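Comment thread on ticket #2218

A.B. wrote:
> Attaching the input chain for the structure job we discussed in standup.
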Amino acid sequence: MMKRGALICLVVSTSILALPVLAQNTKLPLVGNIVPTLIDKAPNSARANDVVKKALSDYAVTITATTQAWSGSGLRNGTFTGFIDHYSLNVQRGSYLYSDPYMVLPLHIASRNPKAKEANRLDKIYRTTLGIENRFANTDELRAERSVRWARTPDFLANVKQLADRRVENIIADKFMLDAFNKLLIDVKQQSMYLSRDPIYEVQLRLAIKSDTPNAQTIIDDFNASILMMSTSGELERLLNPADVSQVLLDAALYSEILRKW
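C.D. wrote:
> Ran it. Output below, let me know if you need it in another format.
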């Protein structure tokens, strides 16, 4: 009887020890739409990359930062098993399993005009033209928004350029990017943008894995458990908000013309 019990314990212990090995042998090619400071190519700072890689450190994870067109194509043809930037502004599809939210992008209105600080809803700037990036404008929720006219742009650089060129009075963007651009303005002794005191939207980011991926639910469960531990330990906060707040995360050379016009 004791021998049988010892054998069972050995089998269970071996199985438990084997789990990390199995995970390490599981290749997870993931993709995300490239956004400076959020999802980017090495060695550039990229919060989402850092969080996902840390949370799935037991897996052989690769993250490709690319355009929306290439990521969509790669997901359809099987190059990628999932994506790291499902926005809560989009509905969830049945062909994917989704994690719990691992970070939030607060979307604020930004302007040269101090009145932007008081804007807490889109209807406060009713029927005005509002600059926005396609990554938000093309979502299910914002496509249906009719209280403002969208001035769509491919990225944050083009969006803030609209403001510099006086083509729009207000833009909406995520606070990480707005804070990073304000640091550039401050560095060149320019007036920083005024931001709405409260976010207009709070966009949750989730990991999405194709539901037909082997052990897809286990991957999602492992990710959620890791995020919870990282949140409890404070590691998640450190990755999302690095201690060196003085560091400018945007490439000043790309924004030089905008800064000159400001």
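A.B. wrote:
> Thanks. Noting for the ticket: Residues 121 and 149 are 14 Å apart (CA to CA).
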